[in-house]
Amino acid sequence: MSSSNHNRAGFLAIELDGAGYENLATAVLAAESAGFHVATFTDGRVPGRANALQRAAFAGPVTRTIAVVPEVDTVYTEPFHISTQLASLDYVSGGRAGWIVTAAESPEAAVAVGRSSVAGGALAQEAAASIEVGRRLWDSWEDDAVIRDVATGRYIDVDKLHYADFETPADFPGPGYSVKGPSIIPRPLQGQLPVLAAASLVGDGLVPVDAVDAVLVTAPTPELLAAEVRDVRARLGASVAVVAELDVVLDSRGEAAVSRSLSAQEDGRARFVGSPAGLTDLLDSLLQEADGVRLHPAAVDVELDELSRLVLPELRRRGSLRAPIQDGTFRDVLGLGPAENRYSTTAAAAAAGK
Amino acid sequence: MTQHNRAIFQPSGQIQFGIFFQGVNSGTVWKAAESGSQTDFESFRRLVQTAERGKFAAFFLGEGLRLREHLGRPHALDVVGRPDAQTMLAALAAVTTNIGLVATQNTTYNDPADLAHRLSSLDLISGGRAAWNIVTTDNAWTGANFRRGGYLDHADRYRHAEAFVETAKRIWDSWETPNGPARRVLHEGQHYTVDVTPRLPRSAQYRPVLFQAGDSPDGRDFAARQADVIFSAHPKFDDAVEFRRDIVARSVAAGRGANSVQIMPASEFILAATDQEAQEKKAWVRSLQIGPQQSIAYLEQFWGRELSSYDPDGPLPEIDPVVEETSETRGSGFHGAKARQLADQWRAEAKDKGLSIRQFVTSKTARIDATFTGSYTAVADHLAEYARVGAVDGFNISPWLIPTGLDDIVNHLVPELQDRGVYPTEYRGTTLRENLGLEMPVRSEEPVQV
After folding, report:
1. pLDDT at position B368
2. Per the CB 3.0–4.6 Å rule, which of A37, B184, B237, B325 could disulfide with A11?
3. With a threshold of 0.90, does the pTM exceed it?
4. Looking at residue A165, what DSSP letter applies?
């Protein structure tokens, strides 16, 4: 049936920042019905932009298939709050939450909370510490910790709760800190939320590869993107999913994309400007290299319209785009198995019995 | 507009309801068959949609930033596992249209610029339905979960909280027009410094509504200066009237109107078709709230030692409290000689009244003052009296059962109150401020910095 011969089928994500907070429900529903697997929510310090994690939480109950994945900063935030907020997001979305870890240099963010500005290599160390805290706290309740045992009067089994006892490493560049735990909320529905970060933040001396589940890869032009994806895969190995980042401006409603592409390119991302058919071909080839592609539409409603009518159906027909998984988790989208619990007494007991 | 003396309190003749989802307490029954999840979204969706059907003004979420402990380990006997307040409320905003969404948030373990931004977000996402229940904690024990740690002196906490709230208000007041420009907000205080240009405009209700629950003289003055609504601990009629008088005096002294600060006490409702059935139901609820294990655990908090060999249906322990170990026990307010004195006093009291451990602990822990027990009509008559004299502006109800605990209130009590003309039959507007009947904040007079 298909004219091309593929053996890979990937996923597509879409950044919904352009929908703001007023058109959020409409936009995320449109993205879900178009067949996107993931909606992301950026959280940079831009006037008019509401908190990303809350926008993702709002999107959770109005959808049932698309993953809702906010950016959350790790430099000027409290890791305990981040961990419990993301765990809560997993509950309100029925196991469809993820976390795009950011650690950007921002003197503006620093003075807002009265901290010294963090820069350079220290940013990745902040991110690594926050991820470790988050993951330990998610595991700090075992899956079956809530027992509701009427006979003994116990609501929880205290043996299945664990102190995180996190301490920043001795060579931590900023002021060190510790986090006690356990979490205040049970283990997330997914056990561990998938953690994503820019590929530039991950690697030797940065955020450890095994701390993340997927990386976001950027290149200056669409032509360079596939090669960059291959390079990142070679550098980081097969344990992380690779997601290519692409700005998209499409011909739409009788208007050529070039005339709609007014803003100068500032974000450093590859930008596709052209017809839906041209984008389909580009994504088709990108999805042979990357596990997924995240699209940043120039205008959410305009591009979503073209994408849903002309691009995603054709990619599915060609076999390069997977069908969304009804009631699936974000771990399912990334092909991750069940998350083991580092503190699991059940697993330890089973292993000892072997 | 009719003129009236702002220093004279005018009863509205109405009461409203809020629901307080506690999520971590012994008052929530989990041993009954109907008891559902304390964490899953479906429990929250069902509760909030029931509340909205009953025209409740607000849905409150509590917060605790460290798991309670008992004798050095997490406390096992009560419900626990409440989701993060603002995350849950942002999700509930998507499945509701009118009800207010109140997040309990701590001034000690948050940064003012960050918390103000997140509350603004919730307010905008919900179309002007957000509120902040301001709490302040001073212990290093909770601080062990945070970079910031626990750094506050107990005596300092209201000064700190007030500086925090003032800064948040300036942040919410910063946008000159709905499209900007925004005024830079600077604050240099003892515990934090802020230098921020706010990124979000004012909401449909201007800024989040402020709730506060402090009950000491300092706490009351703080509320009278800063809060829109007091989440009070004075639900009993005479006590409520006296509390109103006190808050009106403090509000007027603080330069605000006598009606500027509303009062919604914490409460529990145990209702049935007849008074007798309600009393029977109450006995059943109490037996599930304080079981044999909870009775022993309650005494262990004060004794500072394990008492599991004692019979819950027998007399209070004859051995004395362990003095040093009480510091290990969170939730204990008594230490050293005070613990021994308390134990003597309690043993005498239980003996006098002929109470077993379990009966004694039930008498100490039940929300006696805060519980309205009776038939729908009798309780409605009683509440109508609160409305008539303006003793309170409403009640913040903690359901003892999740997620069905509001059903009989909404199905039976609310219609009785509506029939008596003391409870709203429709939402007045779409914002929490409108639905509570609060005044719009007055815009800051500070000029914009260019």
Report:
1. 64
2. A37
3. yes
4. -
